[in-house]
Amino acid sequence: MNNFKKEKYLQILFILSILILLAAYVIQYILGYQPCNLCLIERVPYALAIIVLILNYKFKKDQIFFSVLLLMIFFFSFIISVYHLSIEQGFISESVLCSTNNTDLITKEDILKSLQNFNISCKDVAFKIFGLSLTTYNIFISILMFLISAKIYYINYDIKK
After folding, report:
1. What's the domain range around 154?
2. pTM as predicted
């Protein structure tokens, strides 16, 4: 019975990760909202989770290892999202990741090239749903996915006993 539940939890993580990445790409490429560098970094845990979940199906004997990886991935996702929200709310100043590197522009070609590679500020929220930034939603989703990963870990741990 536990195996059935674990499989459902794994499927939920897999489907949510795909849907979140798809939503991010739709917002960027179809709706035309440019993400900041931290927004791009916030996508990485979901891509990693997809890879880990695929490997989890392939290598059945390393279930605890993969569940620990999932816990670490979604904990990182939570931390980076809280950091990003702190920048959005003005609690901390923007990091080097968010700033543009237009300080050493000497020639006209350098200026034109830098305009093509313009970085969006991490403190500017371009897209909101019901008044909340996507970073805020990412915090809640990261917590949910961390809790699901914890449940998977405990199921795997109980099976090993």
Report:
1. 2-160
2. 0.80
